[in-house]
Amino acid sequence: MFRKKYFNVILVxxxxxxxxxxxxxxxxxxxxxxIHFDVIHTGQHxxxxxxxxxxxxxxxxxxxxxxxxxxxxxxxxxxQIMIRLEKVLRSKKPNLIIVPGDTxxxxxxxxxxxxxxxxxxxxxxxxRSYDMSMPxxxxxxxxxxxxxLLFTPTENCxxxxxxxxxxxxxxxxxxxxxxxxLLQQLPKAQKSHIIKRxxxxxxxxxxxxxxxxxxxxxxxxLRKIADSIVHLKNLSVVFPVHPRTKKQLEKINVYNKLRExxxxxxxxxxxxxxxxxxxxxxxxxxxDSGGLQKEAFWLNxxxxxxxxxxxxxxxxxxxxxxxxxxxxxxxxxTVNEVIEKEETLRKGLVKLPxxxxxxQASEKILEAILRFH
Length: 373
Ligand code: UD1
Description:
Layout: E1 7-13, H1 16-31, E2 35-41, H2 52-57, E3 65-66, H3 74-92, E4 96-100, H4 104-115, E5 120-123, H5 135-145, E6 149-152, H6 155-163, E7 171-173, H7 177-190, H8 194-197, E8 205-209, H9 213-216, H10 219-230, E9 236-240, H11 243-251, H12 255-260, E10 264-267, H13 272-281, E11 284-287, H14 290-298, E12 303-305, H15 313-317, E13 321-323, H16 328-340, H17 342-350, H18 361-372
Helix pairs in contact: 1-7, 1-18, 3-4, 4-5, 7-13, 10-16
The structure holds uridine-diphosphate-N-acetylglucosamine.
């Protein structure tokens, strides 16, 4: 049967996790002769370690356009992406736009497409923390509600969308593309030498990452988290520092103090293979990142989430993840409890059902897009 040769699809990304979670779909779509598939980079992340390194490691083709928006306030950044993207979409005239995740680039991409009546597909739809003070919660809710195709990573995400009145036939539970990419890249990640390079051995260190505004932009919370890791003396601590976190730690005069602690290793942001390697071999992960909570879960490493809530409640329900907020006492107490019961808890994890799909989410997304065509 004759099919129209080109179905013109554009995927808009801009921040570190979006590059990772889109990688398997980009590879599949680029190989498919039925669609013309382009990637537009908003430039939200622009440092080598925040963007280019992931294109390199995941062997992704360069974006056809980089909007080079850079950093700014939320309104400024979102608005600048919209203004610049509007022109590009007007000339490229895509039949569908794909937006992954929940960043300012996601929302800006969805709004511009909606205003030009271009159908939107949202990857990682339906995630909810029910905390509207998080910029990501605003971004994902609004994006979900103007999308024609909503690809959900878990049953819980599907239920969230149905509860909000989104029609069933717009939702497809595909599983999580972050799980796809993790399975594909794990063999390479296992070959990383980062632990040796840092002078560590497996299961003797905590991996720490923080970047959320509620922790980093609040000097009080940032101090409390810094205090917790200073007191984690029974473990080494590896802390890849996000650029915004570094700026804020320097501002409150804590960066150098952390550097002076012999059990803490402050390092630059690292690539995908290295973070997987460090996560897999950590005794425990302490993070406020949504992606890292899931990666720890998939790699059977216990996680402590430095937030009051999480969109990935599946990991909490299965005792793989513990919420502590930025409360020093609670963090230290939870780390000790988790380490004490680590073996029993980890045994339970290995038997967990595949609630994030079967590692083929990206295939299902591509099929759904072709059906939509
Ligand atoms: C963004 C996303 C967040 C995602 C995270 C992954 C939003 C609202 N947030 O947060 O959901 O989990 O990316 O990292 O979209 N900076 C640099 N170099 C860069 C990028 C940023 O120095 O390449 C610094 C700038 O000072 C910037 C700050 O980091 O102001 C914050 O960057 P921004 O893109 O606004 O948000 P993230 O905190 O990275």
